[in-house]
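Why do we bother with holo predictions? Because pocket geometry can differ from the apo form. Keep that in mind while you read this record for magnesium ion.
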Amino acid sequence: MSPTVRPFALDLSTPLSTADGEITERRGFLVGVDDPARGLGEATPLPGWTESFDACEAALRNPPAAWDRVDDALGDGRPATPAARHGYRLAVLDAAARDEERPLSAHLADRGGFEAPADTVPVNATVGDGSVEDTVAAAQRAAEAGFDTAKLKVGARSLSTDIDRVRAVLDAVDLAVRVDANGAWDRETASEAVEAFASFGVEYVEQPLPAGALSGLAALRGRGVGIAADESLGEHGVGALLAADGADVAELKPMALGGPDAAIDAARRLLDTGVDPVVTTTIDGAVARAAAVHVAAAVPDVRACGLSTGDMLVTDLGPDPSPTVDGAVRVPEGPGNVGSSFDGCLRD
Ligand SMILES: O=C(O)CCC(=O)c1ccccc1C(=O)O
Ligand SMILES: [Mg+2]
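The structure, written out:
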């Protein structure tokens, strides 16, 4: 049966500025199914990372039969419409967990063969591109709010300016710092960046090279700073990333991978191969953020995740089910993804 599909649009209070452009608004769909219970999902496409808004809607209105073959969430790489699959599969998984009267995190932990899920997940503050002064000010606010880790967007300015930004933050605040270049650098610049950031004790450098450069990423490893894959994972899939030995850390975005189940299956394979998964949103609404928190909670001893993104939105789909307190998010207690707090949101 086709799911119920309702569009929404959410503005960001300040655009998130990255080397790959600015994110200013998020448009997507709430998705409802009622088998075996009432389940709610969210599909929030981010073109470049997922299909377009229109392709997402078309897929949701006519869901491919393959989405119901639940044992193969990863398929042979990226699904054609990952955000639509996410919305649909989240609704189905929510319904299943509600039927089992347990939180989605417990359902997902079982699926991954993991122990009992965590109650809280450590998170990083997300700091967009900006001047040295603005970057330090944002890092100071993060430290005061209780974060232990900040992720700084780099790659939009010259490397020497980014190095100044990172050094200024490390001098000003007591935070672990990771940086995300969103694929901006060529091999030579990436090599220089890795050398500099290793000498500062940066935790990891995310996507220093364009998505296609798996062997380039592999060549940057072992130089004193971690290498994280993000866009590369979306483009090539977990199997190819592992085969290339491309990363120490892999960013799992359930919305871009095709669902919470796909993200858990990816986490399982990464952990089995010694790569650390980090779970992040694509700046989603409250329903998909909560689902990403459940995914992260199911991953044993997960590193700080990119899940503290709700504050970037001016309005949201409802009350925040997983607010950030002291650098961690609380996992919604369920049952299902967000308990009963969004019940009725698809009714007129
Ligand atoms: O990881 C985070 O801190 C937040 C998520 C984030 O940075 C992001 C959000 C939307 C699109 C791409 C990215 C990214 O990690 O590159
Ligand atoms: Mg990234």
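The longest helix spans residues 82-99.
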